[in-house]
Amino acid sequence: MSTPEGKPFSNAVFDACSHEADLLSAMGQPVDLPEDFLTFARQAMTKSFYAQVAYAGLDPIEVSALPLEIFRSRLGRRTEAEVMAYDWAAPPTDYLDFWFIFGRCEKSLGEFSSS
User: Fold this and answer.
1) By C-alpha distance, which of 82, 89, 71, 87 is closest to 104?
2) For residue 70, which of 38, 109, 110 has the smallest C-alpha distance?
3) Residues 62-95: pLDDT tens digits?
4) How far apart are alpha carbons 2 and 101 in whole angstroms?
5) Per-domain boundaries in the chain
6) How far apart are alpha carbons 20 and 16 in whole angstroms?
């Protein structure tokens, strides 16, 4: 499924869910997005990250974090320190410019999930 220009509709879903999470966080509510969405988002966002790494000619690297963390951090809702604390197979310093799609968050948002 894609737009007339060929872009995946998933980008619109990512955007809507990201802003929903922003609103929940701003209201002091747990950021509880549907698990099936988070599983899909984690797969899509790690796949695109790994493709960017390969295109840049960097050695492959694995990263592991909760699906909500992957989703929120790739879209710029986590600090560099928060992302560096994920379970990386190697030091992530050379990879961080490829991790953050919309830049790094300057300070922690203090988000939480009830799960």
Assistant:
1) 82
2) 38
3) 999 999 999 999 999 999 999 999 999 999 999 9
4) 20
5) 10-99
6) 6
CA proximity to 100, closest of 39, 29, 45, 41: 45
Q: What is the pTM of this model?
A: 0.91
Alpha helices in 1-115 (DSSP H): 10-26, 35-55, 67-74, 80-84, 96-99
Query: How many whole angstroms separate alpha carbon 70 and alpha carbon 35?
Result: 13
Helix/strand/coil for 14: helix
H helix and E strand count, the chain:
5, 2
Query: What is the sign, positive or negative, of the torsion defined by CA atoms of 76, 77, 81, 87?
Result: negative
Mean pLDDT on 33-61:
97
